[in-house]
Amino acid sequence: MKVVIIDDDKLVSMSLKTILESATGITVEAVGNDGTEALGLYEKHRPDVLLMDIRMEHMTGVEAARKVIAEYPDAKILFLTTFSDDEYIIEALEIGVRGYILKQDFEGLIPALEAVQQGQTVFGGKIVGKLPGLLQESLSFDYEAKGITQKEYDIIQLVAQGLSNKEIAAKTFLSEGTIRNYLSTVLEKLDLRDRTQLAVFYYQNGGR
Amino acid sequence: MKVVIIDDDKLVSMSLKTILESATGITVEAVGNDGTEALGLYEKHRPDVLLMDIRMEHMTGVEAARKVIAEYPDAKILFLTTFSDDEYIIEALEIGVRGYILKQDFEGLIPALEAVQQGQTVFGGKIVGKLPGLLQESLSFDYEAKGITQKEYDIIQLVAQGLSNKEIAAKTFLSEGTIRNYLSTVLEKLDLRDRTQLAVFYYQNGGR
DNA sequence: TAAAAGATATGACAAATGTCACTTACATTC
DNA sequence: GAATGTAAGTGACATTTGTCATATCTTTTA
Prior knowledge:
The structure is a homodimer. By secondary structure, the first copy, chain A, is an alpha/beta fold. Chain A is about 50% helix and about 15% strand.
């Protein structure tokens, strides 16, 4: 199996190289230390698996992977992650990356590579458990950025549960007229027409 | 690595046994041919990985896995699937199963087992690509079962896009009054009060 | 063929909704 | 202390919405 490694931490990439070459049947064809090298090295060596850090300086692993897959849709890319890389995971999944494995997990590395070579997708450790939550977050809308206050947001949530103004008033101990006023400004801020559009907006932007 | 195999097709389980035992470091501790045997064999042998068919006669692999994991939350279960087992996949994911691999994929089997033993999760072939779609379907509501007709459902979808009755009428070439009537019966059938609750219902039951 | 069922439509009505102009009360700031 | 800002409220108004009774026309069924 031919592997190309890309990681901007030379200590990591060298350790990986050592580990991999001690295994039979694996050749490390090249080691790059920047996402910008990914496409070039992939083209030159056509490795079975491209093992790449997801968080790097000049170009993130995700961007690099996107370029490689654009040219070679069947490229098998395995990301190295730490626990703090949540933000990239969904994006990477959409691109069609073949897996994520924790940097710390030396024992798991070789079986993971082999599984990926066989066309499978591998998720290290507890990453799978995080997926449902991440999928939602990735869609979530930044109401604060549109100038929606906390109280307004509370009302949005109640509308998005299908409550009438009267019911919302009862729940919040405000008058029905006040609810109407709040709702009116919310609709304007979000450029919507009525409460139904608000509920639709809510659910199409990550609400549940 | 100790493995227990469960598959109600003896031809399959025996082939698997042969393949696995030809590999160094793998012992097949037991072979069961029914989901009901899963928990017993797991308790007796405590394998590193439980390799189980997902579709079986008396008890599905999913049910069997649920029982095993209830007793042994860290149990590593790898499912054998065919392309037609979509319906079980989401359910199995929720239980905390460690992967799915296609029965046909003999080469991938051993690396997959090793990756699972190392604590990773493995998805064979194109299963990952199906996940987003399946996640949605798993939530989807059976409008037909509530007596919703096709035309009514069309209107539900338009309401769930935030359109007014007038707009829906224009789109469907029906009169606004007719739309109101349709909507009225839809609300009754689903036991809802107004269009906003309908939109909420739609999105909370698998719509997008 | 007659009756039943289905699709579409109308008009009337009450309730809910969204907008607007304006007020009151309280706290913060200058 | 006056000015400003914010939170909450009121009343009026036009629209939209949901319900209901009823009508017309077509298709299916008995």
